[in-house]
Inverse folding.
């Protein structure tokens, strides 16, 4: 079961795999809005799908937009699911 | 194709659409700059004296009052639409390959069954782009609170798609050519 720091790191790794380089990951902070930082909607959905596989869960249709805002909020959601 | 896609005359009536290339090295700042240039050109064509588009803290473009507009870009191309007097506008261009997994995530079962072939005539990328354009337009109304673009529902209506969320609707037109899809949602 990942703690928040492990989940953050795994999400960063998924973004690197998804984008094919670490340019975005190296400049985005844990709390910064991923969309405002320049992550496309297509890449965001790709990340969410990759998270389902990596962490073994399925996103609910009614997930709150705030959960998807940043690496920190995504990691917090994953950890809360497991606890 | 010169730069971008042509919009049919019936839809383009009263809508000003401008395309601009993204300059090298095609980074975030160049993409944003190309979007701003396209927006300025569309505002100028639409007759707006104010041609600067500021950004809200969340990154959403803020067009001059009375000139509803929207901006989108890929890595290499930017487009802006301005529709004077419209309540809200959303435009989206997309060149990504939409995987079956992403398609399943973004489209509901009914949407996949009725809008994708063989029953429907749209590609997953067109529907992805349609939801993005509709999201920008419906978000521009400002009464729906926070929601996610894939929570919008698409249905067929004559030659257009109708996008719905929270009791609000907006028609969306889509077209594709040479690996690029364009979606335009105008709520007049």
């Amino acid at each position: 079961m990942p703690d928040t720091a492990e989940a953050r790191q795994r999400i960063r790794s998924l973004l690197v795999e998804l984008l094919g380089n670490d340019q975005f990951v190296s400049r985005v902070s844990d709390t910064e809005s991923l969309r405002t930082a320049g992550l496309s909607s297509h890449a965001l959905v790709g990340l969410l799908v990759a998270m389902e596989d990596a962490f073994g869960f399925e996103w609910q249709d009614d997930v709150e937009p705030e959960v998807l805002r940043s690496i920190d909020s995504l990691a917090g959601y994953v950890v809360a699911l497991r606890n | 194709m010169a730069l971008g896609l042509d919009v049919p005359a019936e839809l383009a009536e009263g809508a000003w659409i401008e395309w601009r290339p993204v300059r090298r090295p095609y980074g975030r700042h160049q993409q944003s700059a190309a979007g701003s240039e396209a927006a300025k050109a569309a505002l100028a064509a639409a007759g707006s004296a104010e041609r600067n588009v500021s950004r809200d803290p969340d990154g959403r473009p803020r067009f001059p009052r009375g000139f509803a507009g929207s901006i989108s870009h890929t890595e290499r191309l930017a487009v802006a639409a301005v529709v004077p007097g419209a309540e809200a506008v959303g435009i989206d261009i997309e060149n990504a390959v939409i995987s079956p997994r992403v398609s399943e995530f973004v489209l509901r079962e009914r949407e996949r069954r009725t809008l994708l072939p063989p029953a429907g005539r749209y590609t997953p990328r067109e529907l992805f782009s349609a939801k993005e354009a509709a999201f920008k337009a419906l978000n521009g109304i400002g009464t729906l609170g926070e929601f996610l673009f894939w929570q919008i529902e698409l249905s067929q209506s004559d030659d257009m798609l109708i996008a719905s969320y929270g009791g609000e609707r907006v028609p969306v037109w889509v077209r594709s050519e040479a690996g690029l899809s364009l979606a335009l949602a105008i709520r007049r």
